[in-house]
Amino acid sequence: MKTLDRYILKSFLKPFFATFLIILFVLVMQALWLAFDNFAGKGISLGIILKFLWYTTLLVVPQALPIGVLLSSIMTLGSLSENYEFAATKSAGISLPRMVRPLVFLTLFLSGINFLFLNNVYPYAMLKQLNMKVNIKKKQPAIALVAGSFNTELPNYQIKFEEKYGEDDNLLKKVMIYDLSDRKGNNKIITAEKGKIISDESSRYMTLVLEDGYYFEHHLKNGSSFKEKQKMPASHAYFDKYTINIDISSFNDDDLGDEKYTRQYNMLSLAQLKDTVPTMKKNYDDFIKSKAKNLFLSIDIEDLHHYPDSLVNKEISPNILENFNDREKRNILSSAVSKIERTLNNNKSNKETLKNRRKYLNLYDIEYYNRVAFSLSCLLLFFIGAPLGSIIRKGGMGLPMILAIAIYVLYFFSNTFGRNLAEESSLTAIIGSWISVFIMLPLAIILTVRATKDKGLFDVNTFFASIRTTIKNLFSKKEKTT
């Protein structure tokens, strides 16, 4: 290795390790802050928190690497240009591509490391962290309760509420509870304006204190017919305060190391995704065929027949309803309306189910293509950062930091935007995953060409000179024609 190559690599690696570690720390702290409510005051041991931080670190490494490469490339090339070291090397006959050649090989190596992390380490860390979150919620059931939908995690109860608030997130607003403990369906319904969750780590019960509510219970006997059930008595009452003790001892039997979720899209390697996606697509196609067949049968298309003209009764009116009396007309129309409404409701339900299944399948497809696309982000962002640094001729953490953040935000949001569109089937999975590359690649090519030709980021004089030349040519053509 030549002295120049060693010097360039040394100039790059120093800011790279510094910026990479800083960015990694910031991303880990951000993830910890978002998950802070799940740990604070919940009796979670320090060892569990450190494990969570370790898995989080492994998850954000593929995201921190491209940012580190981008920022350090702008800083390194900007510093070399600012100190006129580029000018010295150019005067010695060494071109910009020759100078950055060792950095290109280093960036290729970092892209390979990024791919290995995305394909092997990232799925492992995601599997461990997600299962840890689920098991922590089971240790502390109050954490698992989510506002706005029915929560079915608690045994024998379904709980829904509008809002969870308070310092410990244990206060509830607008509570509705289905008590299923008697195994007879939703016969006990409790509503309340406010509620409070009281649970201790060592207790086998979680206490739910409700205030200002209403209790309704429909008394049923086993084996009763539908008519008998309608005649059964019901009891109801208003209350100022009502306490429910829910047995959560089954949750305490779960180990925080249990792994119940192992086949989600972000827990699989590329090889596993490649094996899983075809099977899911086949199941999805079979589901569509089944629903299409059911729709075909529900509208009785198979009962329609084509008869020869010789069999047509000349006395039958072309208006079908005119061939029936008023009572028969009402029955026919009522039956038709009922069948149409039933078919429309079924189609609406099937449409939502189909959309969710397609969306779930898209997640696997997107993850497969995004692993490859995102692993190339180190190389792509280097070819943006390196020429940009040589053009702006500014090192340090000031302007390079601002430019790096702006560029990465553009890359990250275009990647997220493409994935969201692909998830909703507005784009194909491969286009949605690679759209950020398609957007950033022209910028990388333009900056690299301008830096190689030693041009500025935007040459104002050349721009106005081209406008003046165009205007002169137009006027000269008019003079010749006159």
Automatic annotation (TrEMBL):
<feature type="transmembrane region" description="Helical">
    <location>
        <begin position="368"/>
        <end position="388"/>
    </location>
</feature>
<dbReference type="GO" id="GO:0043190">
    <property type="term" value="C:ATP-binding cassette (ABC) transporter complex"/>
</dbReference>
<dbReference type="GO" id="GO:0015920">
    <property type="term" value="P:lipopolysaccharide transport"/>
</dbReference>
<feature type="transmembrane region" description="Helical">
    <location>
        <begin position="12"/>
        <end position="33"/>
    </location>
</feature>
<keyword id="KW-0812">Transmembrane</keyword>
<feature type="transmembrane region" description="Helical">
    <location>
        <begin position="99"/>
        <end position="118"/>
    </location>
</feature>
<feature type="transmembrane region" description="Helical">
    <location>
        <begin position="53"/>
        <end position="78"/>
    </location>
</feature>
<feature type="transmembrane region" description="Helical">
    <location>
        <begin position="395"/>
        <end position="414"/>
    </location>
</feature>
<feature type="transmembrane region" description="Helical">
    <location>
        <begin position="426"/>
        <end position="449"/>
    </location>
</feature>
<keyword id="KW-0472">Membrane</keyword>
<dbReference type="Pfam" id="PF03739">
    <property type="entry name" value="LptF_LptG"/>
</dbReference>
<protein>
    <submittedName>
        <fullName>LptF/LptG family permease</fullName>
    </submittedName>
</protein>
<dbReference type="InterPro" id="IPR005495">
    <property type="entry name" value="LptG/LptF_permease"/>
</dbReference>
<keyword id="KW-1003">Cell membrane</keyword>
<keyword id="KW-1133">Transmembrane helix</keyword>
